[in-house]
User: Fold Thiopurine S-methyltransferase from Pseudoalteromonas neustonica.
Amino acid sequence: MSANYWLKRWKDDDIGFHENNVNPYLDRYFTNLVPSIDSRIFVPLCGKTKDIAWLLNKGMHVVGVELSVSAIKALFIDLGLAPTLTQYGQLTQYCAGNVTIWVGDIFALTTELLGSVDAIYDRGALVALPFKLRKKYTAHITNITKSAPQLLICCVYDQSKHDGTPYSVSAQEVFDHYHRIYSLKLITCDAITNGVKGVKPANAVVWLLSRKNC
Ligand SMILES: C[S@@+](CC[C@H](N)C(=O)[O-])C[C@H]1O[C@@H](n2cnc3c(N)ncnc32)[C@H](O)[C@@H]1O
Assistant:
């Protein structure tokens, strides 16, 4: 999935993945993962999600990464914040209040630029990537976050009936990517009433990934 694919979707306003309300699983399950205020939460492939405002309102700090400049401009307008921009190599840092967003390719983000994070919130990130990139992505975020715990929201359906995003990511695949580093807990699996891109049945599956004790 190329950068141009996503940039074109933002340009064409083809952003069906964007939710106008906070994701209900975030509201229901995230505070179990990081109960303390002041936690620093990493939101990979963040788009202009309303979930960032929710995290900020809970007293958390947010660090995100997103390819699209227009998405991030819209995000800051929505938050009512005027960011300061700083260039770091291929990435531009947008920073205001308790939010830092890196604009550019997540694979250019390093541990040093990201800084320390307490948890990862993955909604629409893993499922946005084709299989080969998912392998690279899971290794990369585990590495740059030093295996911070994560709330991961996936969808599962018959991929042969829809070739594209959001990709179906099975329980076996989540296990294969993450079991060496994390203990995996399946929190819930709910039917998606309208299916995914018209494909039914489809389920939303929510995982809690906790770092294994060494
Ligand atoms: C399915 S959307 C999900 C956005 C957001 N998480 C949400 O829930 O609304 C995937 C997002 O990832 C961004 N993206 C895709 N590949 C990326 C990459 N390599 N680095 C940074 N962002 C990327 C896209 O521009 C898009 O906004």
Remarks:
- The pocket of S-adenosylmethionine is lined by residues 6, 17-18, 45-47, 49, 65-68, 71, 105-106, 123-125, 128 (CB under 6 Å).
